[in-house]
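Running co-folding for PXG.
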Amino acid sequence: MDFKPPQKYAPNPDLKIFVNGRIVPAAEAMVSVFDHGLLYGDGVFEGLRSYSGRVFRLDRHLQRLEESARAIRLELPMTRQELVTATYETLEANKIIDGYVRLVVTRGVGTLGLSPRRTECPSVFIITSQIELYPRELYEQGMAIISCSVVRNHPNAIAPRIKSLNYLNNILAKIEALDAGVHEAVMYNHLGYVAECTGDNIFLVREGTVLTSPVAAGILEGITRDAVIELVQRRKLPFRETDLNRHDLYVANECFLTGTAAEVIPVTQIDGRPIGNGQPGPITRQLIADFKALVNGGE
Ligand code: PXG
């Protein structure tokens, strides 16, 4: 039977992918069905972004990748400098100046069985592409999100600080969001405090103070989150990392999300309730402008 996938799922045939030391056409970029990244979600990754030919905070991303790998006892088969070179070579091969980069390290090919000792060598691949996570107009109008019932992974189960290939926790939450007709969902931790969204960190503004959940709440230590905290401090805005609950979301004057793909995006509705006056707030708008200036200025 001649069965072809719909065009939108076919990879761009001109796309070049870095796979284990070689840059190859997308059609030749394959992983084995015996790769433990695929069999068990055993691996780590990073999502990065290039602006005007420069990857934003590449060093910080590679540090997080190294920490994620260390946390799962995976020895990266490439040095930091080799990963930097491979990332830029992949962008260059695709002539991408402004775009997204996905850097993936899997446990590698092995036999069946959970044990990482049953694998030989980790696999590394790097995919670049254009990414648009949310529709453009939402950056102006603000977006609606929901609180979801899926609890964020317990930090002593799979630490959310590990950017691992095990994203089912977030995917289950994302499905709940999509079923509710929105793009994102707030995930609460096992204690009932706000953790983060499925692929973004969350901030609130209450009476002029910028608030966000602490890393100890069980979140990914977002690189965009760190950059925004620096911008908040540069503006000398009152700021606190503190446990937040659903009530804090509902009474906030402003809310926004941060992430590599999303950048900074206003949230104007949570669980059908307007946040503040239902429009993106002034501090959110200021930080969106500051973040744009930061990435265009190169750090
Ligand atoms: N929390 C989670 C669970 C994430 O996955 C963030 C927060 C934000 O972190 P950074 O470091 O990006 O500011 C993330 C990152 C995608 C995609 O394809 C997701 C992320 C990043 C890039 C692309 O959905 N999530």
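Result summary
Residues 253 and 276 are 4 Å apart (CA to CA).
The chain has eight helices and 15 strands.
Job closed.
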